[in-house]
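From: lab user (bench 3)
To: helpdesk
Subject: output format question, protein + adenosine-5'-triphosphate

Hello, I'm new to running complex predictions and I'm not sure whether the block I got back is the full result or only part of it. Here's what I submitted:
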Amino acid sequence: MADGSALSASLDLLAYSPPGWGANLLRGLGNTVLIALGAYGVGMFLGTLGAFGKLYGGPLTRDLLGLYTTLVRAIPELVLILILYFAVTDLVNQALLSMGYERIQISGVAAGIMVLGVVQGAYATEVLRGAIQSVPAGQIEAARAMGMSPLLVAWRITLPLMLPAAIPGMANLWMIVTKDTALLAVVGFNELVQESRQAAGTTKAFFTFFMAAGVLFLAMSLVSNQVFARIEAWASKGTKRGGI
Amino acid sequence: MFDDKTAKAQRPVAIRVEGLRKSFGSHEVLKGVSLTAREGDVVAIIGGSGSGKSTMLRCINFLETPSGGQIEIGGEAVAMNAAGAPTDRRQLERLRQSLGMVFQSFNLWTHMTVLENLIEVPVHVLKTPRPQAVETARTLLARVGLAEKEAAYPAFLSGGQQQRAAIARALAIGPKAMLFDEPTSALDPELVGEVLAVIRALADEGRTMILVTHEMKFAREVADHVIYLHNGVIEEEGPPSAVFGAPQSARLKQFLSSVG
Ligand SMILES: Nc1ncnc2c1ncn2[C@@H]1O[C@H](COP(=O)(O)OP(=O)(O)OP(=O)(O)O)[C@@H](O)[C@H]1O
Ligand SMILES: [Mg+2]
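Helpdesk reply: Thanks, we reran it on our side. This is the complete output you should expect:
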């Protein structure tokens, strides 16, 4: 009986409409997913450029990219977020002020996406570089030998062929970025963890809200696994493993 | 088309290599080799392992960057700087589109079906309308005996089938000349014949071809001109009857007896 009432009290707290906090949690989840997707997209874009740049770029490009990946991977993400968020916001505003414009408030979502995207880009550079190196050189040569331009070779041959090797690492990076969104709480951004903390702080039902947050992260990861499994099967077409 | 060998001198030059040199680091692999293939010629390049045969072939379409010399394709010199590097990417890409290359290891694109392999360059590079590219591809696949395999992925084909598909892919771009780098060396012995039959048919229809091969009997049958490479120089060359029938240099004699 006591158990039952505790459970129903928890469920009341999680109800969608006030006084339940469900709407807040879902809004936090929405922000988390939005930032994770955005940062992942930015990361994949930077990672693709970074990987091709590291493999085929000139010495200067390679040195700069080496500096980027080394720095980002050496420094704890929390520190990077603080540096990038405050330093970048400050730099932008100083530049604006010096040019006679007003200070602006950089949106939390945009800042979160940029900051985590830059971090993701460094890791994605390494994942994709390894995947590109796994593409058999002969298949790239065959494309060059028939007069394909470097861009067309990259797009039609190298990228699709490296996908099977890239997907496990890229799936891993997606898991990391969904969880890294929690770090944005330090800059006051209302993602899932921050919303849960506020709800827990107000109601003192810490266990309920942090369990709820954990369950939502778990659900997100289970859905993602399904999606990546499908992408992997699709990308492996033509191999005996992937089926016809 | 070019049956009359006496008219040879009048046929246009398809590929000319002049004083080609190539070094890997300090290792000079080609020490000034030359070759002329007129339209309809079949030139065979033979020689021991490491003599520079593949390197010579791959320099023709700049898969390897020469260190010096001159390459002409269809009468057009490939623009290169003093170090041998190509200087006009567009020109090189255009000239490459007139050379069909066949590799020892097939190198079909494994993420595409056989048919997709054949139409890839026609559709995406040469801008042939897709239905027309598909039709040409099907005709070529029928010619190499792979009509039923158009929807198969390369991993599901035998080595001989993959190499025949790769030859069809090279033909699909409508090349002026074909380059073969040991097309049967990676095949099980029982599959060599089916690939050689396809190459022989191409020679018979008057295709211009440069063929690096270890199949001496085949070279003797299909080639108009044979080049024997040794240590990066052309040790001996001439019509097959001379090179195989009456070798002059001691090295070529020894080579021919060693390969049986
Ligand atoms: N990319 C490379 N880097 C360094 N050395 C190379 C490279 N490619 C070839 N070589 C060297 O150049 C020489 C000639 O090689 P090449 O592949 O042209 O010989 P080949 O006549 O085709 O031999 P095979 O019959 O074994 O195929 C060899 O000594 C080889 O080790
Ligand atoms: Mg070779």
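A quick orientation on your result: The first strand of chain B starts at residue 13 and ends at 24. Let us know if anything else is unclear.
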